[in-house]
Batch of 4 targets.
Target 1
Amino acid sequence: MFQYIANRLIMAVFTVLLISVLSFVIIQIPPGDYVNSYIAQQEASGAEISIEEAESLRDQYGLNQSVWVQYFKWMGRIVRGDLGMSMEWNRSVSSLIGERLFLTVVLTLATVVLTWALALPIGILSAVRQYSFLDYFFTFVGFIGLAVPNFLLALLAMYFGYVWFDASIGGLFSAEYVDAPWSIGRSWDLAKHLPIPALILATSGTAEVVRVMRANLLDELGKPYVVTARAKGLSDWQVIIRHPVRVALNPFVSTIGYILPYVVSGSIIVSLVLGLPTVGPLLLRALIAQDMFLAGAIVLLLGVMTVIGTFISDVLLMWIDPRVR
Amino acid sequence: MARAMPLTTEPDTLAEVHTTSVRSESQLRLTWRKFRRHRLALIGTGIIAFFYLIVAFAGFIAYADPNVSEADRSLLPPQRIRFFDDGSFRPHVYALTGSRDPITFKRVYVADPNQKLPLTFFARGFEYKLFGLISTNVHLIGVEGANAEETLFILGTDLQGRDLFSRIIFATQVSMLIGLVGVALSLILGVVLGAVSGYYGGFVDTVIQRVIEVLRSIPTIPLWMGLAAGLPRDWSVLKIYFAITIIISLLGWTTLARVVRGRFLSLRRDEFVMAAKVLGCRQPRIIFRHMMPALISHVIAVTTLALPAMIISETSLSFLGLGLRPPAISWGVMLQQAQNVQAIALTPWLLIPAIPVIVIVLAFNFMGDGLRDAADPYSKLGR
């Protein structure tokens, strides 16, 4: 058991390292360095930057050194909690990301919870009542859920929200709470706004988990221990819930490793369409403005978030299913 | 060796075996028979064929030059085609006059019932090259005695006054082909790396599997966004096109590599592979001549399922403004105009390019599912 956790932990660290390299590549990709674009930006607004100033800026960020030295310096600063400066906003990256990252995590968690809440009953129903109308219905809906990209669902939701309810369904807060400090009222407001974006994000994940759940449960239903349980006189639903469902529960935990990167990816585009204050729109803006320290930091943090989530799910899986050990 | 040995079986027993044996069919025929029973998969295949027909004849089907813009025709709603004139079949549209609403400053268009513009088949329009070779100006439909660009707007126009229908047709061409190129790239990567991983096993296998695991645990969109944003702004449309394809297929190969590896692992110990080894075949020959045919059908199915993912990726990236850039036309580029609530509420027809995306992705999924079931010799379907 200990070895399994250690194995996963090493894997996670390795993944984080690779993500950090990729994030750094993103910072490095645009031609010229960050000082060049800073100078161009300052000159556009009328300010002059002398060559000495430019050189001292380069020294400060170590841009004269080799790529590897730069990478380790960047990593060194990040380990100490310094994510660098955003040149577009002229503020530290951490102050920009703070609340947005928190809201991204909230949205992601809400999506995963909703995925489970929807997939569990639907999966059980589809397996127990195989080839019934509801089974076919959910299979079909699941197909659409898998096929339609999130952002299109978001666009359609906005359109129908407008046509049918004459309401904009965007945002995570009502107008009066957008810039308000955290309070019970604001949290409640957030809770009221969460379901629609979470539902949009959860569709494909739900479809996936229902598929796996249905297949697993169908495999389990025919096994002798189920027959035994039935023979002992348990009611139909008691048999199903107490025995095979517990075995078939694995996909709920194990698929999180695939769902999480997917949800995080999807949340970026959906946030953009629905105008949610998560890191998504910030990332897009940073990328378009070539504000690379901000962009690199966001990619890194999203990646690390995903790795942590996957690691937790691995440990949970081991706890639920002794066979994995 | 076998030829030198005399046959021990008596001729008449041989004949007996032949009469009792059921007629045999090739794997391909069996697969096709099973596939045919999968109705959704057949419908999906039909839709895909239809879309690729559009791809091949894009210039012929589109009636207006997709790049001709005109501010006076901006955001025109879809135009109604009237099929009957005084009880007889004579398709026509009404001529439109546009003006600006003095209060809202919105452009409003009024149809004039007295000015009927008859539609014709095989009309002359803008110049294009059929299959990129034959220069012609014949189009499937057009307006008699008038310029199609100025009079015919089946699906309305976009912000720049370009005809939406013709643009969707050309976008289909771009979006459907980018998927093919991307899949081809990830197919090569996936099959080669998967085969190597499954065949050799051991250290190589561990490394490749770890890399795949790492790649799969990274959220793709931010990564793609980062890579795509780094593409120089002054690159030509074509260069961007290929760069985006490479970026998209960079992560698309992992699923395929996994499938191929799994099959190779189980095939590696099979008798026919052992036989090939004993006969002294070289490894590339064993892999490509003996093992590949056994898993080719499965690979095809997985590839079919990978195509829609590619199409969605391109659409998403272009939608964000990080993928293909105008003047390139793709579904994602077109949907960029429908990014905010105002656009959706006031000009819902700008959302029309979403329909082909959804339809083709569903079609590919249905076909892929059918192929996967049909290619699996152990599936119950069709027995």
Target 2
Amino acid sequence: MNERIRLLFAEAVDIKLSTLQNSEMTIEIAFIAPLCEVNKINDFIIVPFSKAENSFQNQLDTNPDYKIIEDVAKWQELLLRGNVLIEADEIIYSFNVSRIISIENPQTQVESAIQGPQLALSEDVFISLNLIRSMYPSPDLSVEEHSIGSLSKTPVFALFDQRRVDPTVLDNVRTKLTTINVEMLHAAGELEKLLIGRRKHLFPTVLITERPDRITKALSRGKIIILLKGNMFAIILPAIFFDFMHAVEDDYDAYWMTRFLIFLRYASIILTITLPALYISVVSYNPELFRVQLAFSIAGSRSAVPYPSFVEVFIMLFMIETLIEASIRLPRYIGSTATTVGGLILGQAAQQAGLVSSIMIIVTSVVAISNFVIPVNTLSFAVRFLKYPLIGVAIFFGITGVAVGMFIYITYLCNLRSFGKPYMRIFGKLRPLEGDIGQVNTE
Amino acid sequence: MNRYFFYNFILVSFINLMLYVPHILIQLRYSGAVSSMLVGIVIGSILVYMYSSALARYPEKGLPEILKLHCPKWLVSISMVFFAAMWWFATTIVVVAGAILINRFFNPDANVTLLLAMLVLACGYAATRSTLSVMFIVEIGLIVNAPIIMFVMFKAVRSPQLNWDAIRVVANYVTKMPTLTSVAAATFIFTGYINLSIFNRLFPPNFRFKFRWIYPLFGIMILFITFFVPIGFHGTEGVNQYIYIWSLTADSMLMQYGFIERILFLFLIVYLNLTLVYTMSGWHQAMELIKSCFRNSKPEIDSPKTLISNYVIVGIFASLTILYHMLTNEKINMYITSFWLVFRMFIEILTVIWVFVLSRRRSTAA
């Protein structure tokens, strides 16, 4: 066996091939050392073999962890996945000793909750599975393994509750998973793009999360979870717009407070999208929209500004966007400096220099702050983009343009589907006997 | 589930302001408008009941599919094209009036054709979506806008400036015989049921129409507010001087504590939204009706891909709308509208009776 393995691989010093002999028999073993737990090889193969207290052949036959491999084509993959190949009596066995380096049980960082589980998924997919299985101890939980990536061969696990899952969605996901054709796959975000299949999308239609409680809740609602090896994020699908506006704490805290918070989120999402465009249309088209006092104070604060309102808006939005981008990408220690400097410029100097009006500074900060209220980061990014097209129509059509633009956004959202499920709709009380709208036979 | 029928109903009853219904009624206020409204309420309610109970026997089916079950294909095709034209016309009047209204009150220096083009593009995009999406958009549009309209109406009715004497004077002309035009205008409030012709495809087999008593009540409320409130604000004679009577009525009110002071702006934005939603829904239905005439057409409520035929049909609608705007002016538009309202009433009565008779015949045969 060892000669053939030497031919199968490129010249590499870390492939260990050796022949062992004891009184009973001769075996050949092969493994790639860095991928394997050497202790385990010693404990399970080398020590029992050399001590020869029990018949090693017996051990090979009885322990189900030694799997008989008949297909030579699988050798390479098994070795690369951290298996030891053993040849005894012309029969090839494989034994899994893989060693996975990962952060053990990290804390939640991206979606933190004050109360509720603090444990996040692990980079080791089996630890994640352990977390999910122990939080969702149901015999109906089904786990499927797929492998994606012609080169990376990343194991991907699809989890679902077999009784509650929507069969059409499941079929859809299965065909997607089997037909994905890429070389490398490492991140959940990458898989998201491949699953959606559309090259240009704006809104996230699958939810990426690190929280096991969100995952188990989704499982109980019949959704499908996809776990990736080496990735501490799971994908939940299908996901709808309201999932992205929902923080896990909404289920844990007091009812009225959480309703208020949800209202706050929707109010701020509307503000962050429309405010710059409304500023342009009020200042340049319909100053009479507001009551006289307010109209005067807006006009007064703009008296030092020499150019039209949209230039002002572009200046301020450019500054705030670069500031946000810089503080995300910079190392943590420099990041705070950037925000301080930027905040100073935005707060006072720009207005005193007569570059922008003081109202515009308030508008900018409201836009930025209310954008951060959205609990899930991917949606927050999508929403950050939405204000620009609206500014575009507001320049030409004023408030009319903003209203029409919002109508088009709603149309776009209602038209989106996440794996066949409507992305945005208002859910009312539903009587299961009566069925839902659109639940008709289409042959 | 019944709310989806209700949305269609209130959408149409709210949109009557854009179709000059209050203006037509108010013009005839001394010569039969009040009694016509009473007659209109009766006719409208009967039609709602008949059409919904007829369609309840054909779950998952739209008007074209129902007619195809019983009638020869050529007849169905002709009537579908005809209905589509009717629907297109209603929405065209609304969207053209909307563009003119925005130009009058909001952006006086803007080019009306350009404004109309923008509205038409937005509605065209929305109308090409699937039937299910259109229904969701209607729902969201109404949930956002209807409370504001209710607020404006409530504020109008409770306003101290409302002169109840003027309303009483006009109401006393109830003894005059009803006229055809005003009956037609009054029944328009109730005509939301006809939207079920396509949206009935969405209702699952176990769906039942419930709370049908709400529709006459709601229609009566809207109709009376539409007609009497402007009279109360502007007086029995002054009310006849305006075409966009409700915009001026809304402008007669102030919100003392709101930071938008004039209700007019609130009203205009809301009606702009409703115009967009109504136009989208109307074009979508007209498009589906035309598509049902194609030989191998299959009604699809939520197709994952937008068909090219959708774009073509709606593109034709959109360009015809702009053409209509260029060829007519407000005066002709008003004139045509009052004719169209009468014509529409007869067509709808015929359609409802046709479908109703078909549904009864089917049940006796079975």
Target 3
Amino acid sequence: MSDTYAGEPPDRLKESFFATKPTGFTRFMRTFIPWQMVRFAAINLKMLRLIVRSHRG
Amino acid sequence: MSRVVVLGAGVAGHTAAAFARKWLTASDEVIVVSPKPDYNWIPSNIWVGVGLMPAERVRFPLAPVYARHGIDFKQARATEIHPEGGASTAAPYLVAESTRTGDEGEREDIRYDFLINATGPKLNFGATEGLGPDGHTLSVCTDSHAVEAAKHLDTAVERMKRGERQRFLVGTGHGGCTCQGAAFEYIVNLEFELRARGVRDRADIWWISNEYELGDFGMGGLHLKRGGYITPSKIFTESLFAERNIRWITRAHVRKVEPGRAQYETLDGQQQEFAFDFAMLLPPFAGVGLKVFDKAGADITAKVFQPNGFMKVDADYTPRPYEEWTAKDWPKTYQSPVYPNVFAAGIAFAPPHAISRPRQTPSGAPIAPAPPRTGMPSAMIGKAVARNVVDMVRGEAGPRHTASMAAMGAACVASAGANPFTGTAASMTVFPIVPDFERYPEYGRDLDQTFGEIGLAGHWIKILLHHLFIYKARLRPGWSLIPE
């Protein structure tokens, strides 16, 4: 048996230590409204293309 | 004059009924048989489950919508299908038991010319002891489950405000589950909400799932072009969790839940226990348990349905090793091979095989994510089935329109925090849903149409889709112009 309340291990011992993490700039761009307005249009277009292709079978 | 009966009023059934009604003439009948009086836009249950949205905003009564559009609605649960008729009639019919207050359990025979089985799944909480709202865990599979989850979350937040630490466990409650995407959406929304309520520092948030790797989602994962690399969805999902300090357990089969404790077995055979204060674990799905009888009254359910209760359609169900399955095995028209006037749509059809490689623990427990077939594919299948039924009503010999999951893509927006300025969502597209390694030998998918991105724009799209799809489901003017 394991995983009872043992407290938080240090970050370097967590599985997340080996995962990629976004830089501060990437995180900023994710909620930077002018850039996100561009992405809104771009993602909608990508999705529309996919929907049209899917409906064609 | 023909009568089309649709079982179920979820995404697939509601779409099929609405299009059948639109395309048939007034002299034809469309009947919907569904045990619940309301339509529930399930993707938004996530927001109900974290207390951001009241249940009334994700559901509405079906009867007035159907009355306005000339669809006959029977609030009842179908229990039997008699596709060859019975002793007193040669016409096919089904038996339904009313679920309406006042006449619960009253049986009715409903004759049909064409039957569309779109019942959705049975939420099989019973597969894991102690799982589910009647046991010791929560769910967001229905609007009422989500309301319950939100109440428990409020209690946990109160405790954290008093200084207590709380341990959250979110994911799949059995090794054979599907819908990992919904659990994923719940855990990232939960984390966002705990931050918004100022108690994140007192929460330990854990993911548990039957996925071999994070980001599998029951579809064998996917590959994306990002930053000059072709990256598996594992990297994408791990990054999302690591950034939010969400920890994870994968390759796990939850075998028992007791109050505050989940026992699970991992693929390598370890028996583990996890102590929790709050657990939202999704159940595996099964068919709803419809029985089928021939003219003489003999039970022929096994001819029409798979043992798991999902309906056999025009797929290739020949048992073969996982490596030998191909995209061509997947159904195209969803017609029953036994009864040509019976179709299945959405979760009700039996997939020919898993998309993710099925595995077993040393004790034989499944670590086998089932294929997802909710949302966009469900609606597209519902529409194609309606088109075929209408054609056959008009004299076509058989179905011509196809909606194979191996030839259609899916667009998915997974909310990761609901705020119009600081929220984010993961926007993903995948084409095709079922990998086709003959057409796309390297990754099974078209990488130009398979992408993923996290940002506020995704959240705006999610909000847009919520309103658009509820508008469409209400069959408001122009509803049929909104794509599935």
Target 4
Amino acid sequence: MRILDLLLLLFLIITALGVVRTKDLLGASIIFSAYSLIMAIIWQRLGAPDIALTEAAIGAGVTTILFLVTIGRTVRREDE
Amino acid sequence: MKKLFTYFILFLLWLLMVSAVLALPPIGSETTPVTTHVIPRYLTEGVEEAGAENIVTAVILNYRGYDTMGEVTVIFCALIAVLAVIGREDVKLHTSKVDLVGIKESVIVRSVVRFLAPFIMLFAVYIMLHGKESPGGGFQAGAILGASIIIYTMTFSYDLTLKKFFVKARTFMESAGPIAFFACGVIALFYGQNFLTYMIPAFPFATQEAMRNLMIEVIEVGIGIGGGTVISSIFLAMEKVEK
Amino acid sequence: MINNEVIAKAYSSINYVVAVTLFCIGLYALIIKPNLIKKFMGLNIIETSVFLFIISSGYVKGGVAPIYTHDTPVNALFVNPIPQALILTAIVVAVSVTALALSLIIKLYDQCGTLNANKLKELR
């Protein structure tokens, strides 16, 4: 199971880099949602089911939706 | 040039923080300072003292009640600030038949959400009421409740949500968290106890522990309803169309 | 400077190292990226990295979640509940901070028509 933890942490860094490097803000929001889900799984593995539940609902759901709403009302490309 | 400089600074910061972090006790050891002071008492006596089998809930609502009361107030203030900046949605603007954000095309999404949304809300109510003895509680329930309303709005229409979940009802429900907390905290003052200790004497029909558990349950429900309504209100205010 | 001992230490507390790395990634987005929405995504990454750090510091090896059920053994080993209680409220506060910032961004776009921080500096 140690390998699973290491893989999750690796994916965490990859998705974080993906959020930062993606020029399309819509894509970045979706990758941010995946980042939050991976974080929720890590917290479940660390023995914190309360936090995992909150992060899966808020980080992957609500925050992403708020970003999407903002992008819908403003610009989608990063360099505008 | 500026970019290179930033990379250099960030690398230095990274090295500094890694060297600091490696000086900490390793993860998982039982003797770190984090786990020594009050934690054994919370873990062994939390169930009797605080009245919750889930120690996290016991810490949130009883041992560190002041902290949580402040956080609930912060969430409420954030809602007030959002509404002050962009304003609440105008009911009169949304009486038209125009579908604002509804997904017209996808039958699959609409059917799945129509089937699932009540169950998501039921799950939220379940973890709101069972936060004492299983993972969950007010904050999680609020998040899931808000998410279910958001998913309903995104799939069906903005108008439909406003019709079923109208502003006048939401205005009272948004402040449910702070009000439940303050009310349950103040009750102890009338019996000469400290604020937020939930220590009120036994009634003829209920013991002291039963009253304390009841108050914790009331606060959970208050935080759940308040949090869910705050999240959905923020979403509805940001989603509205300016005319 | 980098020898086997340091590598073994880093391996045993890999969560801390990852949290620090995520902090630097988020800070990079916050400094370099001109777009305001991207800056706030970076801020969210910083927040979650700090949460990861604090939750990891409360982990006890072999511990289970701090919840008593009817079949919990007498001297069971639990993880630390305090960091979890701390972070649970912090997550909800983080999302309200994000919502406030994003509503300010929406208002700013309505007024100025751009979200590029460099262009906003020129507008004045």
